[in-house]
Amino acid sequence: MAVTKLWSVTERLGQVIDYATNPEKTSAKIERHFSPEQYQALADVIAYAKDEEKTEREFYVEGINCNVSIARDQFVTVKEQYQKTEGIQAYHGYLSFKETDLSPEMAQKIGMEFANEVWGKRFQVVVTTHLNTKHLHCHFVINSISFVDGKHLWGDEKAWFKFRKVADRICEKYGLYYDPNPNRSKQSEYLTMKEKAGMPTRFSVAKEAIDYAIDHSKTLKEFQYALKEMGYAYNLSPSRKYWTVTPKGYDKPIRLKNLGEDYTNDRIVERIKSNRDRWADIEPFQRRSYKPRQYRLQTREQKLKKKGGLYGLYLYYCYRLGYLPKYKKQNHARLHYLLKEDLMKLDRITDEVSLLGRENISTDEQLFSYKTSLEEQMKILIAGRTDLRKKMRTKMDDGQLQKAKEEITSINGKLKTLRKEVKLCEGIAERSKIMEQTVTQIQAEEQKQQRKEKSRYEQRW
Question: According to the model, what pLDDT value does residue 6 have?
């Protein structure tokens, strides 16, 4: 099956080549229209697609309506001809194949046929086939401006979910695998995988809240009240085709019918009406009433607060999210609205708290010291990789070349791990400040609510 994707290029990508040292970039005409970043972005994305380490020294590099060796300059010439040098410089896409026994020649042939049909009549395209992964994949760099009429890439020419049908038709023509009935659901594959893994998503949390509200309601008014108390705005108008709810803190509403067959307008009404037959067992939805403590024993929450530092903050935050303790299931319907967004990032937060615990990091100084040590290791590895690449450009026999490639692959794997750790450190530095603010705000709101409940309780007695 051919997987397709397309994205725009507007800024610097990949390895940066010094703009000032390249005499081809210093003409007054180019300087007037293109910034160094725009020009470099175009150069970088074409260089990435042509990377000889991935294309077997450019054996599988071709151009449509352009010469590959000077494609960047030809792209720029078209933009200047129509005086459209601002904004998106190009589009970068790929076409990946499921088959592992596909020959590079066939992959390049399919890539050229695909690019010719989708963009070839109006645009300049660089087409390459990368061989550096298990699954061969073609890369496309498309000029954002048409050489025919000077119009931008638009409509079906950039709608990958439409031209994927072209890819499927070509794959069928050459006997390659394709899915005749792909999943067209509204929910992304990433969210579907998270739900299958039992992790909360924006939709699963909303579904849990709606189920909870329905189970505690005998009328539509009670259902609306329950949603409001849990922090959800709603539009349940009888004249509305699709009912929606909007979690507090979000702007985009969720159509209830997208949550499943049990969440259509009619089905929700049926479920609420069915509660009337068992009205004696239905507990009405209400806020938790204040219960004065008779014994002030130390709670798990207080124990986590005592740890202090970054690690303690993360542990307490995970407790508020319901991730800790693991044996206790959190009721996401009752979760504070400020925490619901971070509930979707639980996998990232758990990686960060694991790093803090593993490296015994409690202060900002320890965090930045660890990040600095990682960056030093990366510099050493990058220097070693650069040296190997220089040696590969000299005469080497097949055995030495293969060994050098294996060493580069090993270095790339180590760099990937280190970059992930650095990114986690950066995430901790940014997220920890937001966590402190969120916890402070939640505690202030809870204390205010407790004072109100306590006042009502005392008035009754």
Answer: 61
Domains plus CATH for the chain? 2-173 (3.30.930), 189-281 (no CATH), 300-460 (no CATH)
**In degrees rounded to 5, what are phi and psi of residue 31?**
-65, -30
- Rounded CA separation 77/85 (Å): 10
Query: Is pTM beyond 0.70 here?
Result: no
Q: Identify the pLDDT of residue 26.
A: 25
Mean pLDDT of each 10-residue bin along the chain, 461 residues long: 54 31 31 54 61 55 89 89 88 86 90 94 91 84 92 85 85 84 59 69 85 89 88 89 86 87 90 78 57 48 62 80 67 73 80 88 89 92 90 82 89 92 91 86 83 73 57
Cis peptide before 292 (omega within 30 of 0): no
Q: Which residues of 237-260 are buried (b: 16+ CB within 10 A; e: fewer)?
A: eeeeeebbbbbeebeebbebbebe
- In this prediction, residue 218 carries a pLDDT of 87
Measure the CA–CA gap between 369 and 431, rounded to whole angstroms.
18
Please enumerate in sequence order all residues whose Cβ is within 8 A of that of 22, keeping only pairs 6 or more positions apart, or say none: none
Token representation of residue 187: 């929910």
How many C-beta atoms lie closer than 10 Å to residue 405's C-beta?
14
Residues 156 and 135: their CA atoms lie apart, in Å, by 27
- Angle, nearest 10°, between helix axes 346-358 and 398-460? 100
CA torsion, ordered 251, 252, 256, 259, to nearest 10 deg:
-120
Measured between alpha carbons, how far is residue 200 from residues 181, 300, 321 in Å? 28, 23, 11
* pLDDT score of 106: 92
Which helix (H) or strand (E) is 365 found in, with range? Answer: helix 364-392
Bridge partners of residue 61, in order along the sequence? 128
Question: Would you give the DSSP letter of residue 395?
Answer: -
Read off the amino acid at residue 366: Q
Do 349 and 342 form a contact (C-beta atoms < 8 A)?
yes
Q: 145 has which bridge partners?
A: 152
Q: Measuring CA to CA, which residue among 344, 220, 210 is closest to residue 275?
A: 220
